[in-house]
């Protein structure tokens, strides 16, 4: 979750004042845009790393006849050409089975579907393109027709699921199938068929905004929501996963529509209350996107039991795939609503869960918990004291000096915000001297000077803001000397002729004010 705040525009006010105000506003006033833009980044990370946005269905859905009769995945050792020939033949068999009538036709249809599905499910050689070129998709659409047996519908939807898990253009080939896939999500469909269709829709939704818009226009949202109420664990998990793919944005329309559906919040709560960690993981991703994209969703969620359930998971679980969306969801809620901090997170010292993630060896958890803490630190004096007095402070100092760039920056925002109480006007923020001294003496200053040297202007500005606090507020006028000892003057002078006017004025102003002609004369 990178900081996507826009670069501040030049101001007629003092550049020092303007930029120091950003120490707070950059993590509070731009929270909404950061949440929305991070939703896009989350989707990309989820697709490429922990939880794929599209999933191949290799094993039968629990409860289907195939689950009992399948002896194992088809062992594939043929050459690619042979497998492609088999795939083309399987598609021809699909076509043939549609044209014949009489005894045994249903059995032939199922066998043809199953042969194609097995070929599409094997991992060794991708065969989706071969199947599409052979004309599989329009045939599979016919196999989805109403009145077909559940077994036939299940196999056809399974084939389409794996085609949708292919490359972008392969996924787009499913456009003719979407109306029937959505229709089979309905109450008249068996749970097994509805679940498999939800899986296919989830794969399509995971491909991109254009296909998500098509699915939403065709009415996929409400029937998917209904499936989230299912008592069958795998069905509820699949529906929640598909739902998170469908609402992930960047357009907030789907998230705003979802939160208005009767019972959706109750479904989220019920799922998070269950012991099923896989279900909780998928539902937590739904919360992530709702909290990133829907202001109404945020308002309803923070005043429900969802935050406490997420906090409970943060305390109790060691499951990385669950902790990441739980932490991101909490971070979004913290950034968006003061009620979340005042009435939920700080009650009973619930920040312990955030500190647990901050101390984790996992990079994503450290990054997300740093961001969440930075938003708490941008709040009231009581919030600042709560973090400052906790185990978080020494961990944050270590991160700002040694962590990866994005984590270092989030840690810097938190530490900087712990040191100031904004005045609410154009005056300089009031420095909390006790916090500033402890953070500087704890070894954070070299980390901030390193940020000043960053090529990223916003990050360098954050470093400059902290140097100004040190030089202005460290007791006995020792701040400039401390900055000089860490080569801070050299770091600031790199902006002497910088193209960014605000950064140039800010850095030159600091050097002139604290290291001018009178510097060192009173020693």
TrEMBL record:
Keyword Signal: no
Alphabetized SUPFAM superfamilies for the sequence: ARM repeat (SSF48371)
Start and end residues of each stretch annotated as Disordered: 1-36
GO biological process: protein import into nucleus
Keywords: Protein transport, Repeat, Transport
GO molecular-function terms, A-Z: nuclear import signal receptor activity
Keyword Acetylation tagged: no
Source domain of life: Eukaryota
A single GO cellular-component term on record: cytoplasm
Composition-biased stretches (Low complexity): 1-15
UniProt xrefs under InterPro entries: ARM-like, ARM-type_fold, Armadillo, Importin_alpha
Subunit structure: Forms a complex with importin subunit beta-1.
Function field: Binds specifically and directly to substrates containing either a simple or bipartite NLS motif. Promotes docking of import substrates to the nuclear envelope.
Family from the record: Belongs to the importin alpha family.
Name of the featured protein: Importin subunit alpha
Source species of the chain: Oryza nivara
